[in-house]
Write a structure and sequence with these properties.
The chain has helices spanning 16-25, 57-66; strands spanning 2-8, 30-36, 44-50, 71-73. The protein is α+β, with helices and mostly antiparallel strands. The chain has one domain (2-39, 56-73): 2-Layer Sandwich (Alpha-Beta Plaits). Strands 2-3-1-4 form a four-stranded antiparallel β-sheet, covered by helices on one side. A hairpin with a 7-residue loop joins strand 2 and strand 3.
Length: 75
């Protein structure tokens, strides 16, 4: 298993965090997703654990970005 933290932008509403979490959880190979949105009004951090034999970081980023939430590997 591999874990990556993603900065997810344009996720400022209270419902965006759960949408991001659900979107990532439906990617084949993802084992767990935790979303941190401390005040409910900021961009979120998504911590994703996945099987690298099934998916990869580029697919995770594309999936969330295609849903309207541009994301990048957290630095």
């Amino acid at each position: 298993m591999t874990t990556v933290a993603l900065d997810v932008h344009h996720a400022g509403c209270i419902l965006c965090g759960p949408i991001v979490k659900s979107t990532l959880a439906h990617v084949k190979g993802v084992k767990s997703v935790a979303v941190s949105q401390p005040n409910g009004m900021a961009d979120v951090t998504a911590t994703v654990t996945f099987d690298p034999a099934v998916t990869n970081v580029a697919i995770l980023i594309k999936t969330v970005t295609d849903r309207g939430y541009p994301s990048y590997v957290k630095r």
